[in-house]
Design brief:
Largest interface: A-B, 31 and 28 residues
Number of helices of chain C: 6
Distance between the termini of chain B: 32 Å
Largest sheet of chain B: none
Distance between the termini of chain C: 40 Å
Order of helices and strands of chain C: EEEHEEHEHHHEHEE
Chains: A mainly alpha (245), B mainly alpha (221), C alpha/beta (215)
Helix content of chain C: 25-40%
CATH architecture of the largest domain in chain C: 3-Layer(aba) Sandwich
Structural class of chain C: alpha/beta
Strand content of chain C: 25-35%
Number of strands of chain C: 9
Shape of chain C: globular
Radius of gyration of chain C: 17 Å
Largest sheet of chain C: 5 strands, parallel
Oligomer: heterotrimer
Strand order of the largest sheet of chain C: 6-7-8-3-9
Chain lengths: 245, 221, 215
């Protein structure tokens, strides 16, 4: 098993692996998301306070969760790439960044859309949304730094440091934003998985989370394939691959 | 003894370039002065805004100052000599950040008293304002130095630096401005100041490793 | 510790491969340099001479292969190695806002075992005694280069890595450098230098590497 993991770090082996696995994950994620949406939009009852508006949590909460997860994945892969000098780890970081940023953006947009019917404004400086916004900035900084270097490897390693520093900071940022929010008594009505929820609500929520994870995995594999091709474009195996198709 | 020689060299160089190092300080004053011009100069309004305005201006001024941290040394080749020295790079780096803060950050702390005057910030709270900046500006210098170490080799690195560093400085801004704001209305300030102190210790212990790693990576090509 | 004339004072390079972006600068490069030997790295502009020298100092990174000094690999990033070398790069490493004397004081502070109280002697040897206290910004390019050369004499290190050492030097400067190199080799030192001009270091053998010829 360990040997297989080791082989996975080799770009050509990984490329073939991803080529086979990605479609399965992709279709499965579509099925799961559809199931979750059915459960969330049809089966579960409207919230007694918020009516049907709350249903956006079925997209908002999984997006927010994935955005956090993707950042941690990015930082961990960056650390692995730096310490053990595995090129594929840096590719994972580089692939996760735009994807994570997109999910962060989605979380912000869905949060904003939720705000309009609730409080009449498209933006509230609630702790969660503010943290997501800062997370988006962290992602953008990483992407900007990664692309600023002529030599891709230097860019990978520099942005790896940034990702690790960011990851250490993220808990501190969350804590400080929460504290700031309690200071000014901002609205904190976005309920997350921790709030009291009947099974008819949280089961579709978990299904959606699972579906989003699968989607993320499928998309990551595809993106990684592209990253690997770009990084290895001067090697023999890539040339052979291009000639075959 | 050698470490004091390094400090001495940085201070001597700073003195020779004192015109250049005045930039962050002047920037701080100008930015603070912009707010009353952009808003209502009504003293009551300024008083409520003062902690936030002074803190944001200080934050931006410290960032402006980061460009001079490693850039000249990178361009004339002295940075390479620091990396090749048998002295542990992390030590050289933390001393450099310290002397840089003495020359660019500490003046801001002192000048904040003047800025407080301009914005009608209550005098009884000045001690807390100064304390918050005194604890906070070194943290900002450390974070700025991390960004500077990663961007020193880039041609437009100076423009990228704020984008990388500003999100990381949000906790410092929150606690610092909160301390200054609460002091102005008489609320207890122990909590935010303690958090600043804790972050300062964390920054001083961890930042040198990130900065040194960043410098090594930047100088690879 | 730096003993004199240690038999194991060998810089050995094994199967070194260095890429810069898309280009391969060297592949499977191997060589050895020992006490009293000089190695000249030759090649056209852009062939990778500077990059190779920087990899040997530890500033740059090799993609494959290993560099060893006294049997210990460079990947360990040891303080020992950095204490055994002096580097003169393209840029002088000289602060223009400081005088030659002040620059040497700084360089001294960064060394492991600087020779005490030798700054005046060194400045005299490189011909900068009269200008020792002027800011380097007011000196000519050649004089700044001499300040950088003076740095090499601050401590007794085994390895000298020089990248285009002759740049900006006049004829007297070239003679000065040649004398310095010969003195260093006589005392058991090693010199690795990159230049396309040939240098006469007789009676010391000068090995040569040409970059950019193999695929």
């Amino acid at each position: 098993m360990f040997v297989w993991f080791h082989k996975l770090a080799s770009p050509p082996f990984f490329y073939r692996f991803a080529e086979k696995l990605a479609p399965w994950l992709g279709w499965l994620s579509l099925l799961v998301i559809l199931a979750g949406l059915y459960g969330g939009l049809w089966l579960s009852p409207p919230d007694y306070q918020q009516g049907d508006g709350f249903r956006i949590i079925y997209v908002h909460v999984p997006s927010a969760w994935i955005s956090m997860f993707a950042y941690m994945l990015m930082a961990t892969a960056a650390a692995i790439g730096l310490i053990w000098r595995i090129k594929l780890a840096h590719a994972v970081s580089a692939a996760a960044a735009p994807l994570g940023a997109s999910f962060t953006f989605l979380a912000l947009v869905t949060g904003s859309l939720w705000g309009k019917p609730m409080w009449g404004t498209y933006w509230v400086w609630d702790a969660r949304l503010t943290s997501e916004l800062i997370l988006l900035f962290l992602y953008l900084g990483y992407i900007a730094l990664n692309h600023a270097f002529e030599d891709r490897r230097t860019g990978d390693r520099a942005s790896a440091i940034l990702a690790i520093v960011g990851a250490v900071n993220v808990p501190i940022i969350h804590f400080s934003v929460n504290w700031w929010n309690t200071l000014h008594q901002g609205p904190t009505v976005f309920f997350g998985p921790k709030a009291e929820m009947p099974p008819s609500m949280y089961i579709p929520l978990f299904i959606m989370m699972f579906g989003f994870m699968l989607f993320f995995a499928a998309f990551m594999l595809k993106r990684l394939q592209v990253e690997v091709l770009q990084r290895e474009r001067n090697t023999v195996w890539v040339r052979e691959l291009v000639e075959q198709s | 003894m050698r470490l004091t020689a390094l400090i001495e060299r940085d201070l001597r160089l700073a003195y020779r370039r004192r015109g250049e190092l005045a930039t962050p300080v002047i920037f701080f004053v100008i930015v603070t002065a912009l707010f009353p011009l952009a808003l209502n100069p009504d003293p009551a309004l300024l008083r409520t805004l003062a902690p936030g305005v002074i803190w944001v201006a200080a934050l931006l001024a410290v960032l402006i100052g980061q460009d001079s941290l490693f850039k000249t040394d990178y361009e004339d080749g002295s940075l390479e000599l620091m990396l090749l020295s048998p002295i542990t790079l992390e030590w050289i780096v933390i001393l450099r950040v310290f002397t840089h803060w003495l020359v660019t950050g500490l003046p801001l702390v002192i000048l904040s008293l003047l800025m407080a005057l301009l914005l009608d910030y209550p005098t009884h709270a000045l001690g807390t304002l100064v304390m918050s900046l005194f604890l906070g500006t070194p943290i900002l210098s450390c974070l700025g130095a991390v960004g500077a170490s990663l961007t020193v080799g880039l041609r437009r690195g100076f423009m990228l630096l704020p984008i990388l560093v500003l999100p990381l400085t949000v906790p410092v801004l929150i606690f610092g401005a909160a301390a200054a704001g609460r002091a102005a209305v008489g609320d207890p300030v122990a909590a935010p100041l303690y958090f600043l102190g804790a972050m300062l210790i964390l920054a001083i212990t961890l930042a040198p490793f990130a900065i040194a790693a960043g410098l090594r990576i930047s100088l690879e090509s | 510790m730096i003993d004199s004339m240690e038999q194991s004072d060998v810089l050995s390079v094994d199967n070194l491969s260095v890429w810069r972006g898309e280009r391969c600068l060297c592949r499977n490069l191997s060589f050895r340099v020992s006490t009293g030997e000089a190695l000249q790295v030759q090649g056209q502009n852009g062939a990778g001479k500077t990059t190779l020298i920087r990899v040997l100092t530890g500033l740059g990174r090799a993609d494959e292969g290993d560099v060893r000094w006294r049997g210990e690999s460079l990947r360990r990033n040891s303080e020992q190695y950095r204490a055994s070398l002096s580097y003169l790069g393209h840029s002088n490493g000289v602060k223009l806002g400081l005088s030659p004397r002040e620059n040497l004081a700084i360089a001294s502070a960064l060394l492991a075992n600087p020779i005490a109280n030798k700054v005046d002697v060194i400045l005299d040897k490189v011909g900068l005694s009269t200008h020792a206290d002027l800011p380097c910004g007011m000196l000519s390019m050649g004089q700044r280069r001499r300040t950088a050369l003076a740095r090499l004499l601050l401590a007794d290190v085994r390895l000298w890595f020089l990248d285009e050492p002759l740049a900006s030097l006049d004829i007297a400067g070239v003679t000065l450098l040649t004398d310095m190199l010969k003195a260093h080799l006589t005392s058991g030192g090693i010199v690795v230098f990159a230049t396309h001009q040939s240098m006469d270091l007789a009676p010391f053998p000068v090995k040569s590497i040409m970059l950019g010829t193999s695929a």
